[in-house]
Amino acid sequence: MMQSDLSKLGPLAPLAGIWEGEKGEDVAPSDDRGTEHNKFHERMTFEPIIPVQNHEQMLYGLRYATVARRIGETYPFHEEVGYWLWDPVERQVLRCFIIPRGIALIAGGAAEPTSMEFTLVADVGSETYGICSNRFLDREFKTVRFELTVTIFGRDRFHYKEDSLLRMPGKPDLFHHTDQNILRRVSG
Q1: 126-179 pLDDT per residue, tens
Q2: In the chain, what's the furthest Cα-to-Cα distance?
Q3: Are 106 and 121 in contact (CB under 8 A)?
Q4: Of 47, 91, 161, 164, which one's alpha carbon is 20 to 30 angstroms from that of 12?
Q5: Is the dihedral angle over the CA atoms 9, 146, 45, 63 positive or is it negative?
Q6: Which residues contact residue 173 at a Cβ distance below 8 angstroms, ignoring those fewer than 6 apart?
Q7: What confidence score (pLDDT) does residue 188 get?
Q8: What predicted TM-score, i.e. pTM, was given to this entire model?
């Protein structure tokens, strides 16, 4: 997709480029099934792709990758790759991604072409916006719901907050595995 076609990306258009955030906050299950808090640095890249045609459906999108490193550490503790897609007819934003822990999600939600904030959701068992995990994660850290809210603050800054609700054996309540960061454009 050429630069002049970014307008077809609807609410995703401002995300095209490379972004970094230095003040990420992660609340996750610790090794002993308690809670750990991690501060992290993150780099996200969003690259426009050619339009995707599914018969009558036309999707416009961004190929993306994210890498997160705990502050002070060299190696990533989290990575993911996938696509953010805009369906202008259905007025839906979709995020399709894979995490190399053995989990894949398709999350979606309503938006307008000029929306500066949108929320995407996936539920385990859903045939449209759903979650699929490997056997270990399904047994020990079953993601039953995923929620993501993105808020775009103009051309050079955006915020996201994710909440992955996990069911863990022996725990009566769902665990809220949350991640959030404010990212700033570094290129694009």
Answers
A1: 999 999 999 999 999 999 999 999 999 999 999 999 999 999 999 999 999 999
A2: 54
A3: no
A4: 164
A5: negative
A6: none
A7: 85
A8: 0.94
CA distance 107 to 109: 7
In contact, 130 and 123? CB cutoff 8 Å: yes
- Write out pLDDT tens, residues 37-48: 999 999 999 999
76-131: pLDDT as tens digits: 999 999 999 999 999 999 999 999 999 999 999 999 999 999 999 999 999 999 99
DSSP 140: H
At residue 10, what are phi and psi to the nearest 5 degrees?
55, -130
Name the token pair of 34.
């308690």
Q: What pairs with residue 125 in β-bridges?
A: none
4 pLDDT band, cuts 50/70/90, is very low
Q: Give CA–CA dist 61/54, Å, rounded.
A: 13
Scan for tokens 């398709």, then name that residue: 106
Tokens 């972004």 — which residue?
Answer: 19
Quick one: residue 63, left, alpha or beta (phi over 0 = left, psi -120 to 50 = alpha)? beta
